């Protein structure tokens, strides 16, 4: 069993400051592998070597220092555990020294050491001046107080001391390891083929572990591939884990399908997205600000893509048009093609013309919906997520930002959106359910939405606000059809359909906030709503009631009522008649046919009494009993069936269950 702790050591620094020579002196490996690199004497792309220091096995990533190849440097820098900032003693701090140092800060590299190379070319006094300049540069950064080791690859001076300093930095990293969600993830930085093997990719294992024979998912393709073989530092192994440089022999995919920037992950762990919610930080020496709606080059993992920036707030919580050097804020990145990310993943933003690093930050939402600058609620939730450290708090705040969907709240998605391990996420989820911070809202017989209490309360406020608007638009109506409410809250209805609206209404009813009428609920109202009628409308309502009451068993239909009373808007008559129904002054026995409530009660009494005498009754007998015509007897018979007074049996009617309930019990 390999007892070495795998970590990644990455170089950084200006061109020709001796990064590759120092790597060769430390590891014995020449990391310049391209013919052009050999010919020109500069590093163009990433180089790799391995180094053992005590109980640590370091994957050494040698990055190019030329400004034209910073994009290649960024492809390898994201996975560094320890940074080796290389500064030539004869040159001192140079432009790419500063840019690489800013990149390391923006990427959140935890530990580092500074190597002062070419020690043999300068006097001690000059060396002290360069060391003092470096101490000033790193104040307030992760390198403040770090060891600065003078070295020479010509004489070998300082190399042993540098290894000791690097080992001490590794100790500090190991004491406070980065959280590992336990899901395998590797950002591909090289793709090639080997005769007799097939497709091979290399990269740094960012999290989790994988063994030979397992399946992985390739993103952004979303395709499954088979792990046919593994190498770690040039040696065949059965398993690689977080912190290792790995070469993976893949099956089920062609070389042309893959590229630098693609990712391999545990199936179901990652998902591609076109929008990220991010915490932003502008580099301290950025020559230009990050601007709202600016276009930038996003460096994420080992890939890069064009992205548009939406600035939501500055560090003081105010909407702004730009963030200046050294400032922080909250924003969203809209990318040109889908990318994969996880919570807390660092990124860099650069301008392309001229190529300049302006800032970076960390991902808060790897799959975000649009957040508008005026949407204070969502912005506040994102700000709170950025400040969350406790696992329960972080999970609750992350879920509050996820559009509710039973298929999206999986163990893998919770790991992706919080950075928590499956075990910690499960425990935090159970605690949120136990304390009522996560609620399950029914959206079907066997389906439910898991939503934070904060979001549920917001939805309930929206339901009440929608009811208020509908009442204001229909002041004469005492209740509102539930279908109108669903139309007013289309986004909620889309998430959970009518059942979600019904569940929210039931919660409000149970707390005495609204009324629900009908079974199933057909009409709703705020508990404090009172219909408002003008004097003329009250007069018209009284006239409608009088017209129906005076007509007895043969009341006028809607057209006759509006004509007789001179009502120009039939909809007004319907609203007033609905009010009379709700007040139990009239009864609608069929669409467009209303009876006075006392007359309807008398009809029930007569029919019940007759059926207790004769057992069955034909339609003609019902007509004669009521002394009306077939025009009215037909809808009345159907109404009596519907309310249970009668029970149809062929062409006759018997006493129904509702009438039998009134019979005395012997």
UniProtKB/TrEMBL annotation:
Domain Tr-type G: from-to ranges: 4-178
Pfam families referenced in this protein's UniProt entry, alphabetically: Beta-barrel_SelB, GTP_EFTU, WHD_3rd_SelB
Predominant location category: cytoplasm
Biological process (GO), any one: selenocysteine incorporation
One Gene Ontology MF term: GTPase activity
Origin superkingdom: Bacteria
Keyword annotations: Cytoplasm, Elongation factor, GTP-binding, Nucleotide-binding, Protein biosynthesis
GO cellular component annotations of the record: cytosol
Subcellular location: Cytoplasm
NCBIfam families registered for this protein in UniProt: selB (TIGR00475), small_GTP (TIGR00231)
Protein name from the UniProt record: Selenocysteine-specific translation elongation factor
Organism per entry: Isosphaera pallida (strain ATCC 43644 / DSM 9630 / IS1B)
């Amino acid at each position: 069993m390999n007892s070495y702790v795998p970590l990644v050591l990455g170089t950084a620094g200006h061109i020709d400051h001796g990064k590759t020579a120092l790597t060769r002196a430390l590891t014995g490996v020449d990391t310049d592998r391209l013919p052009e690199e050999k010919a020109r004497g500069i590093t163009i792309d990433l180089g790799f070597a391995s180094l053992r220091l005590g109980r640590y096995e370091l994957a050494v990533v040698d990055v190019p220092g030329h400004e034209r190849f910073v994009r290649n440097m960024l492809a390898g820098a994201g996975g560094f555990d320890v940074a080796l900032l290389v500064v030539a003693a004869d040159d001192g701090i140079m432009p790419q020294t500063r840019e690489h140092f800013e990149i390391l800060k923006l990427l959140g590299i935890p530990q580092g050491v500074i190597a002062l190379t070419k020690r043999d070319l300068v006097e001690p006094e000059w060396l002290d001046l360069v060391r003092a300049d470096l101490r000033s540069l790193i104040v307030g950064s992760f390198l403040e107080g770090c060891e600065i080791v003078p070295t020479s690859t010509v004489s070998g001076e300082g190399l042993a001391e540098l290894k000791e300093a690097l080992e001490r930095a590794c100790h500090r990293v190991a004491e406070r390891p980065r959280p590992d969600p336990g899901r395998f993830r590797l950002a591909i930085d090289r793709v090639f083929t080997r005769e007799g093997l097939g497709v091979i990719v290399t990269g740094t294992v960012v999290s989790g572990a994988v063994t030979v024979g397992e399946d992985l998912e390739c993103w952004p393709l979303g395709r499954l591939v088979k792990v046919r073989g593994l190498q770690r530092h040039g040696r065949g192994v059965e398993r690689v884990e977080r912190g290792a440089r790995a070469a993976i022999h893949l099956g089920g995919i062609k070389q042309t399908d893959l590229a630098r920037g693609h990712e391999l992950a545990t199936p179901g762990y990652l998902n591609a997205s076109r929008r990220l919610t991010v915490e932003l930080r502008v580099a301290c020496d950025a020559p230009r600000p990050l601007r709202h709606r600016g276009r930038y080059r996003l460096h994420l993992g080992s890939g890069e893509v064009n992205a548009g920036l939406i600035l939501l707030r500055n560090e003081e919580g105010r909407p702004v048009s730009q963030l200046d050097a050294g400032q922080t804020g909250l924003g969203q990145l809209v990318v040109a093609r889908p990318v994969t990310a996880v919570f807390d993943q660092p990124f860099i933003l650069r301008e392309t013309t001229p190529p300049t690093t302006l800032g970076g930050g960390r991902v808060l939402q790897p799959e975000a919906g649009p957040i508008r600058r005026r949407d204070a609620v969502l912005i506040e939730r994102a700000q709170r997520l950025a400040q969350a450290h406790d696992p329960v708090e972080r999970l609750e705040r992350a879920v509050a930002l996820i559009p509710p969907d039973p298929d999206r709240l999986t163990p893998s998605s919770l790991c992706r959106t919080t950075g928590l391990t499956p075990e910690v996420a499960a425990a935090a989820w159970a605690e949120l359910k136990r304390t009522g911070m996560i609620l399950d809202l029914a959206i079907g017989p066997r389906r439910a939405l898991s939503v934070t209490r904060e979001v549920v309360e917001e939805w309930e406020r929206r339901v009440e606000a929608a009811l208020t608007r509908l009442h204001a638009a229909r002041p004469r109506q005492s209740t509102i059809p539930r279908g109108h409410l669903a139309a007013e809250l289309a986004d909620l209805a889309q998430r959970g359909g009518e059942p979600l609206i019904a569940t929210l209404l039931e919660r409000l009813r149970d707390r005495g906030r609204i009324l629900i009428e009908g079974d199933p609920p057909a009409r709703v109202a705020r508990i404090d709503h009172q219909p408002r009628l003008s004097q003329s409308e009250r007069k018209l309502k009284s006239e409608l009631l009088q017209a129906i009451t005076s007509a007895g068993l043969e009341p006028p239909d809607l057209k006759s009522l509006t004509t007789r009373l001179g009502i120009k808007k039939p909809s007004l008559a319907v609203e007033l008649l609905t009010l009379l129904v709700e007040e139990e002054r009239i009864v609608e026995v069929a669409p467009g046919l209303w009876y006075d409530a006392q007359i309807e009660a008398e009809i029930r009494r007569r029919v019940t009494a007759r059926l207790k005498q004769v057992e069955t009754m034909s339609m003609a007998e019902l007509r004669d009993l009521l002394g009306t015509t077939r025009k009215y007897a037909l809808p009345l018979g159907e109404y009596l069936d519907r309310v249970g007074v009668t029970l149809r049996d062929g062409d006759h009617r018997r006493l129904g269950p509702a009438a039998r309930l009134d019979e005395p019990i012997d």
